[in-house]
């Protein structure tokens, strides 16, 4: 899976969209001297346990492991069958090593993997930091990606059309190459590490139906969740091994998941609502690169119509409304807010979509600030600050805090506004990277405040 941000492309307040996924290729910052506060880092991970039935998780496991994003079926289950070593090569920026070490600790503790980093020699998984230009020259729509049976970018370019790099013919995993950009933000680099390392180890598919996983092309979740760690723990359970068929794995999953996730047996199974290709294609047209505004609107409308006709009441229905809001907010901001409110209605149905709601709140709170309703913005933002922090999303957290600072200024509370704004900057440095990007984000959000218009 190529890392591609769809839900993250909130035009007013978050970074621009990345690319649309390329079929069958699993995918998901240099820090300069600064006059801004030091970059902040998240401390103890706080993933939530999956709150769904083991029967549903079993269905998700099979869909994640036995199908590629293109829809192509995989004949056998694959994983590493030995202790796993990881090595970093290329030109890694300063933030990569601490984020990788933290991720490896989580994989050992939460997923029970026998995985460690080495500094020399051949590794099972090689993470090479290259430039975004090199990545896009190889795969124009990719932000980062993983390839089987290679250990360097040169080897990938040389052998990319050979059977050894074809996921569909893989029978076991021994060697993987992950290619990430060194010239991006610390958060985007970390997100790439989480998603690509997880897919090097386990699932190759992404499923829009998952509300609580990085294995979802909406890219709402950017670090591995409790659900993701359970999937990886099950992937490396002793009951399973490379070469098993889907039927063989399916027969073992009920007992396996009952052992690993006993709470999942207490949840009733829900119907599995598959995501039709027509809806996926519409999403990619509406939010991907290259489409004209009219085509984007038509695609978003088609996606919303599909979601309604299928009776969806979940985050995919909300996503459809979000797209319409996103596309119409420049031409009809009042109508866009109705779409965003509809999205929040569907997202309020389950705690598993609180992070999705936090993204939508960046839009509704920005509108409240732009219309001078600071009190409304603060009411919406405050419950979402902890949500963004628990998800370890510094870009989202700093955006919410900067919006809150403008709202507090509107409410005549300048000292509080100054404190919140200052506190946001350390997170902004992690989420947006360079000083100029952080300052541009500050100016962008400050410009929403009518009190600032006309100032120099």
Highlighted features:
Collagenase (Catalytic Domain), mainly alpha, Serine Threonine Protein Phosphatase 5, Tetratricopeptide repeat, 456 residues, 5 strands, 16 helices, globular
Using the coordinates shown, work out and report the CATH topology of the largest domain.
Collagenase (Catalytic Domain)
| Poorly predicted regions | 5-23, 28-33
Order of helices and strands: HEHEEHEHEHHHHHHHHHHHH
Mean pLDDT across the residues is: 91
Number of strands: 5
Helical fraction equals 40-55%
Shape category: globular
Instruction: Output the number of helix runs.
Output: 16
User: Structural class, please?
Assistant: mainly alpha
Strand order of the largest sheet: 2-1-3-5-4
Strand fraction: 5-15%
What is the CATH first-level class name of the largest domain? Alpha Beta
Roughly how many Å apart are the termini? 45 Å
Q: How is the biggest beta sheet arranged?
A: 5 strands, mixed
Global Rg: 22 Å
CATH superfamily of the largest domain: Collagenase (Catalytic Domain)
Count of separate structural domains:
2
Which CATH architecture of the largest domain?
Answer: 3-Layer(aba) Sandwich
